[in-house]
Amino acid sequence: MGRLLETRFNAGKRQSMRVVGGEGVRFELEDGRRVIDGSNTGGPLGHRHPDLVAAARKAADSPVVNDGWLWAEREEAARDLFDIAFKGEESWIGAVRFFLSGSEANDLALTLSQAITGRSAIATRERAYHGMTGLSRDVTVQPHWHGGLAVHSGGTKPVPRTVEVKVLPAPIGSRYGGQKPEPLSQRLAGAEALLADAAAVIVDYTQGGIYYDPAYQDRVAQAARNAGALWIADEVVTGFGRTGRWFGFQGAASRPDIVTLGKPLSGGAAPAGAVVLSQRLVDELEDKTWQTFSTFRGHPTMVATLRALVRVIQREGLVDRVAALDVFMERHLLDIAERHPSVARVDGRGLHWTIELHGPDWRTWYADTDEPPLASRVASRALEAGALIGTSGEQTSLFLAPALIISENDLEQLLAALDHGLDAADEEMRAVQ
Q1: Are both 340 and 290 inside the same structural domain?
Q2: Is 157 helix (H, G, I), strand (E, B) or coil?
Q3: How do the pLDDT tens digits run along the chain, 433 residues long?
């Protein structure tokens, strides 16, 4: 009998819960419980938002128009994206092409960079995740997402990279705990040399609990420019208000050559991705054609829900609301961290936060066991208290990313569930001392 070959958000094979529905910021589980969806970067408006539902229903009456034909609605979606989400960025922004996912967007942005520069090597930062398709997998350097096989009796069978990948030191920061940062001039001293033969450097703003640093971004942008490489802002997670700005890169002076989008782009109502090019690159492509095609890119459902999403975010002032919640989240999470000796570090922005536990270094984790790691066990305990919390499959890191519409009351319930879940990590920590 055939069955679904699953990908597990939280590592290990002891997951018994099954989602059967959802409404607002909550999932409905098979056993009848309604729990807060605490880690859903693809659903910025929660589940079954009426504007998104209406847009998707209307889109079902649209023609099937593939990527190769001009279509007015797709052009209007691009205009809405620029006029609303990228408002204020008119001086540098050029054009957008829609894709099927953030992984595909990153892959095609990197291949375009190779074509423009004539170089093959690509660069990213430590602990990065950029997807599992083509070059996006190559620049995913979290070892447990190698794209191959994790052998549960121990060991791995990774897929070889297709190009040379260079890895820059990541920024260092935290709101609680963590290591003392070293001067940026020292940390990125060799950036130009590292990027000397790279087509592009791609940087994201949350993965592995490593968050936005404007000085870091500006230094990497300068190094890329000096080395003749392009720089790509991977906003697949951080786009559309997640960290209290429309996009993560906007808090620094530098502006990217390329921005990649995914996850929340359609409000979670359809698979979606996009590559946004600077006007400089659009001018460079004036006498050229970027040779990519796909039947379902810019699909009617994706186009309609994108237009609905940006209007809801604008109408309800969600970007400013998330920025204001940053203080709320920091205060509560630091209070929780101080009560739990198992917590090693807390960092985050807006409504994306990472809680890192004491334990093995992430570089040693290959998901090569059936046993759920510590972070997954904490998430299981939190589920008992009414919230589903994600781990990105890591050993010691949990992340919170609820819908942007979540109320403070529901946030308090989510944080209380995390507090309850961390008791499991404290108990294990005491047991081994």
Answers
A1: no
A2: strand
A3: 678 777 777 766 666 688 999 999 999 999 999 999 999 999 999 999 999 999 999 999 999 898 889 999 999 999 999 999 999 999 999 999 999 999 999 999 999 999 999 999 999 999 999 999 999 999 999 999 989 998 988 888 989 999 999 999 999 999 999 988 889 999 999 999 999 999 999 999 999 999 989 999 999 999 999 999 999 999 999 999 999 999 999 999 999 999 999 999 999 999 999 999 999 999 999 999 999 988 999 999 999 999 999 999 999 999 999 999 999 999 999 999 999 999 999 999 999 999 999 999 889 899 888 888 999 999 999 999 999 999 988 899 999 999 999 999 999 999 999 999 999 999 998 988 7
Q: Is 132 within a domain?
A: yes
169, with CB counted inside 10 A (0-12, 13-18, 19+), is middle
- Is the domain of 283 the same as that of 423? no
CATH number at residue 339: 3.90.1150.10
Residue 170 identity (one-letter amino acid): A
For the question of whether the overall pTM of this predicted structure is more than 0.85, the answer is: yes
Same domain, 281 and 336: no
Cα-to-chain-centroid distance, residue 365: 20
Provide the domain limits for residue 412.
19-32+317-432
Nearest Cα residue to 11 out of 101, 104, 145, 109: 145
3-state SS, residue 180: coil
